[in-house]
Task: inverse folding
C-alpha cells in the first residue's frame, strides 16, 4: 500500500532536530526524503553521544540522538559550499516538491540556494526555512537553540518548583520540546502549502521561527497573562486553572490526580471517604477549588498518603477519575497500553543489524505508516540519488575525486 505522501519528494537540508523531525514525519507518511549532509561529518547529531548504537563487533555506531529524527530517509553526503555541489542541489530541486532548511538567515543565499533563486528553477517548490527568530525582526540574524528559546519565550518561567520550595528556580523541559513543536508546525505548514498548490499551481516560502512557535505553544498560560495582565508563575506540578490537578505523595511513591470537572471531584471524594469536601461550598466547583487550593491540597495530601499508588490507581480508575503513576521512561515502555499500541519498534540497520525506534503515533486506516529503514549511514545513498538525478558514472567519480561527495556503506 502506498503511503499518503508517496507522490511527494522532499529535499531535507536541515540539521539537528526541528527540521529533521519535520522531515521524518513526512518520510513516515510515505514521502521520499533526501537528507543532505556534509561529507565526512554529516549532521551534528551523529556525534551527540553517548549513548551509541553498538555494532556486532562492539564498535561505536550511530548516536541515539541522530537515530531519533532521521528514520525513513536517504542520505546524500554533498558539499554545498562548492559550485559543483550547488549545481547538484539545483538539479534535485527541479524534481522536488518541498525543501526544508534551517541555516541562518541569508546562509543559503550566498550559494544561490535561497528561495528566490530556487523558485526560478521550480515555481512549484515549497521552501520551508526554520530559524531561531525568523527572517525579520531585530534578532533575525541570531542563532537560536531550543534551550535558549525555552528561556526567552517564557516557558522556563512556568516550569519548575514554585519559589520558596526546595529546588525552586526556572527549569527547561526534559526534551527539546521547542524543536519538536517547530518540526510539527513545519510539517503542518508544508502540507498546507501543498494543498494550496493544488489550487494555485504555485509553491511558496514558509518562514518559521522557534521563538514564534514556543510563544504560540504557551497556550492557556499565554492567554492567562493576556486576559489578566499577570505573568503566570512556576507552580511545580500544580495547574493554574484546575484543582486538584497535580502530583501527590502516596504511601509508597507518587501519583498524578487529574480531576477535570466537579463530578470527577465528587467521585474522588467518595472513594477517598471525604465526601463532605465535595459538599463544602469552598470546594464544590472548580473555580472555588482554585480560589481555595491552599486549604484543600493539604487535606487531600493527608488522605492520599494513607494508600499506595497501585491501590489508588485501581480504585480511581473504577470510578472514572483520571489518575496514574509517574513512570520513568523504562517503565513507560513496559506499560501494557504503550506496548499494545506498538510504540516500540525494531528496524533493520545496515551496520548494527537492528536498531530500536519509537513508532510514529499516527494511525491511518487507509495509508498506514510504513518503516522502510532506520536512519541512514552518512552518504549511504549518495550514488543512487545522483544516478536517479541523471548523473552518469563518470560524473559521479569526478565528484568523488573533487571531494564534493562521499559515501559510506556498512562493512
Result:
Amino acid at each position: 500500500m502506498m503511503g499518503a505522501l508517496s507522490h511527494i519528494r522532499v529535499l531535507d537540508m536541515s540539521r539537528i532536530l526541528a527540521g529533521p523531525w519535520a522531515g521524518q514525519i513526512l518520510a513516515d507518511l510515505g514521502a521520499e526524503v533526501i537528507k543532505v549532509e556534509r561529507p565526512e561529518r554529516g549532521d551534528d547529531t551523529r556525534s551527540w553521544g553517548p549513548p551509541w548504537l553498538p555494532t556486532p563487533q562492539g564498535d561505536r555506531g550511530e548516536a541515539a540522538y541522530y537515530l531519533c529524527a532521521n528514520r525513513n530517509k536517504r542520505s546524500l553526503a554533498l558539499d554545498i559550499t562548492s559550485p559543483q555541489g550547488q549545481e547538484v542541489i539545483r538539479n534535485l530541486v527541479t524534481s522536488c516538491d518541498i525543501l526544508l532548511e534551517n541555516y541562518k538567515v541569508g546562509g543559503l543565499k550566498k550559494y544561490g540556494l535561497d528561495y528566490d533563486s530556487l523558485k526560478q528553477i521550480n515555481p512549484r517548490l515549497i521552501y520551508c526555512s526554520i530559524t531561531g527568530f525568523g527572517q525579520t525582526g531585530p534578532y533575525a540574524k541570531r542563532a537560536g537553540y531550543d534551550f535558549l528559546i525555552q528561556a526567552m519565550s517564557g516557558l522556563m518561567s512556568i516550569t519548575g518548583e514554585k519559589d520558596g520550595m526546595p529546588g525552586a528556580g526556572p527549569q527547561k523541559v526534559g526534551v527539546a520540546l521547542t524543536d519538536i513543536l517547530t518540526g510539527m508546525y513545519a510539517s503542518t505548514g508544508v502540507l498546507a502549502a501543498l494543498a494550496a498548490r493544488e489550487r494555485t499551481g504555485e509553491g511558496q516560502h514558509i518562514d518559521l521561527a522557534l521563538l514564534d512557535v514556543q510563544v504560540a505553544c504557551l497556550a492557556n498560560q499565554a492567554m492567562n497573562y493576556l486576559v489578566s495582565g499577570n505573568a503566570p508563575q512556576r507552580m511545580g506540578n500544580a495547574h493554574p486553572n484546575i484543582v486538584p490537578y497535580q502530583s501527590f505523595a502516596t504511601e509508597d511513591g507518587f501519583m498524578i490526580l487529574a480531576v477535570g470537572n466537579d463530578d470527577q471531584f465528587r467521585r474522588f471524594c467518595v472513594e477517598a471517604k471525604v465526601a463532605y469536601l465535595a459538599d463544602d461550598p469552598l470546594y464544590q466547583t472548580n473555580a472555588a477549588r482554585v480560589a481555595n487550593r491552599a486549604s484543600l491540597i493539604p487535606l487531600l495530601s493527608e488522605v492520599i498518603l494513607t494508600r499506595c499508588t497501585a491501590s489508588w490507581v485501581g480504585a480511581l480508575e473504577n470510578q472514572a477519575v483520571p489518575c496514574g503513576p509517574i513512570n520513568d521512561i523504562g517503565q513507560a515502555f513496559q506499560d501494557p497500553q504503550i506496548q499494545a499500541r506498538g510504540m516500540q519498534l525494531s528496524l533493520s540497520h545496515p551496520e548494527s543489524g537492528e536498531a530500536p525506534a519509537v513508532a510514529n503515533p499516527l494511525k491511518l486506516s487507509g495509508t498506514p505508516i510504513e518503516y522502510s529503514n532506520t536512519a541512514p549511514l552518512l552518504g549511504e545513498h549518495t550514488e543512487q540519488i545522483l544516478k536517479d538525478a541523471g548523473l552518469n558514472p563518470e560524473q559521479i567519480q569526478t565528484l568523488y575525486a573533487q571531494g564534493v561527495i562521499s559515501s559510506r556503506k556498512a562493512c
About this structure: The longest helix spans residues 177-200. The first strand starts at residue 9 and ends at 13. The chain has a mean pLDDT of 97. DSSP finds 17 helices and 14 strands in the chain.
